[in-house]
Amino acid sequence: MTTVAAYAAPAAKAPLERTTIERRPVGEFDILIDIKFAGICHSDIHQAREGWGEAIFPMVPGHEIAGIVSEVGPGVTKYTVGDRVGVGCLVDSCRECDNCKAGLEQYCTGGSVGTYNAIGKDGEPTYGGYAQKIVVDENFAVRIPDGLALDVAAPLLCAGITTYSPLKRWNAGPGKKVAILGMGGLGHMGVKIAHALGAEVTVLSQSLRKKDDGLKLGADHYYATSDERTFQDLRGSFDLILSTVSAPLDFNAYLSLLKSEGALVNVGAPEEPISLNLFSVIGGGKTLAGSMIGGIAETQEMLDFCAEHGFGAEIEVIPAEEINDAYERVLTSDVRYRFVIDTATI
């Protein structure tokens, strides 16, 4: 076992504090990663505060991990010491179900294992990336291309794949009109990726406060959803709307912005149930769907795509002592656009 420094929530809604955790020994197919940067995802806050249900404490959040391989097990073939790697939201799955065999480990029916707030196959809780090191099976790490700095790459392990996967699945590209709902940690990556895929991109945000940023990142249009005229002017406009918002929405209003047979896909996960008039989807044959991260192979594809197009996340690097302040700032949308922890400060 290896003892490493980490930041953990000792209980639900409690401030995170510096502590130590034990990492398992490096097994035959494991790699030990010296974590260099860890992104702060809104999911971390939901789980540390039990917004999505009962959780496991103490909790070390963090599933946007970028670092350097410092040790490999004797059976490892994919990585060597010194490789630049990342770990996202999963550290294991059953590997045997149809979804796992199809590269959809995120939908594993036999029991996927989250990077934190989960129980591993050894029966022990998993601890995430707000730590100095992590041990992970080589099959659940991905290679970070040389063209991506580790700090801007870290958020891609969740925010990048969470937006890339549905944009690819619903064929965002030339000739398609795509709206990104929300201009935050997920939304700003959605804008970059949809633009790079060749779609005509519109941002739908509560206000015009971030309009200049949105246009700079690749949006063609930017509208405020607080303005009722937006819903009149854009009615029937979009092939695809990607919602990155984690608050309850008037889905009937947003579905009205779709073309016939268009899709509204949710990657934001509100804590509260939603209400829906089914005629909003029946009329026009529209789709209301959801998407959750992506498989390991698709995550690698996303990283390579971002490197090819020369972008990572827009970040603010912080020392570990500012994690709790960062949580509060995320909740008030006071970040452009992803906090990243310099784990050397843990």
Automatic annotation (TrEMBL):
It catalyses: a primary alcohol + NADP(+) = an aldehyde + NADPH + H(+). SMART domains: PKS_ER. Residues 14-341 form the Enoyl reductase (ER) domain. It is an enzyme of class 1 (oxidoreductase). InterPro entries: ADH-like_C, ADH-like_N, ADH_Zn_CS, CAD-like, ER, GroES-like_sf, NAD(P)-bd_dom_sf. Its EC number is 1.1.1.2. PROSITE patterns: ADH_ZINC. The keyword Metal-binding applies. Keywords: Metal-binding, Oxidoreductase, Zinc. It comes from the Bacteria. GO terms for molecular function: alcohol dehydrogenase (NADP+) activity; zinc ion binding. Pfam families: ADH_N, ADH_zinc_N. Transmembrane segments: none annotated. The keyword Zinc applies. Its cofactor is Zn(2+). Belongs to the zinc-containing alcohol dehydrogenase family. This is alcohol dehydrogenase (NADP(+)).
